[in-house]
């Protein structure tokens, strides 16, 4: 479980870093919301791919 949390946080922080570099004009609150949505979408895609393969 701890490993999953670390993966999620790493993914979220990666998106946050990307947004701060590529879209510096957006507010930190908006960047956090977008990073959270992108993180959730990525993991939903991974779950869907894994269930399709099995």
Give a quick summary of the entry.
By secondary structure, the protein is mainly α. It has helices at 2-22, 28-53. The chain is 87% helix and 0% strand.
List keywords for this structure.
54 residues, mainly alpha
Write the layout of secondary structure elements.
Layout (H helix, E strand, L loop, with lengths): L1 H21 L5 H26 L1
Helix pairs in contact: 1-2
Polypeptide structure, described:
With 54 residues, the chain is an all-alpha fold. Helices cover 87% and strands 0% of the residues. It has helices at 2-22, 28-53. Helix 1 (2-22) crosses helix 2. The longest helix has 26 residues, at 28-53. It is elongated and about 45 Å long. The two termini are 22 Å apart.
Shape: elongated
Order of helices and strands: HH
Question: What's the end-to-end separation, in Å?
Answer: 22 Å
- The number of helices is 2
Please count the beta strands (DSSP E, at least 2 residues each).
0
Proportion of strand residues:
under 5%
Helix-strand makeup class: mainly alpha
Helix content: over 70%
Instruction: Determine the mean pLDDT.
Output: 94
Low-confidence stretches at least 5 residues in length (pLDDT < 50)? Answer: none
Largest sheet: none
The radius of gyration is: 13 Å
């Amino acid at each position: 479980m701890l490993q999953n949390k670390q993966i999620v946080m790493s993914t979220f922080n990666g998106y946050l870093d990307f947004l701060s570099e590529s879209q510096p004009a957006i507010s930190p609150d908006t960047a956090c919301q977008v990073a959270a949505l992108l993180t959730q979408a990525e993991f939903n895609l991974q779950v869907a791919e894994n269930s399709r393969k099995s």
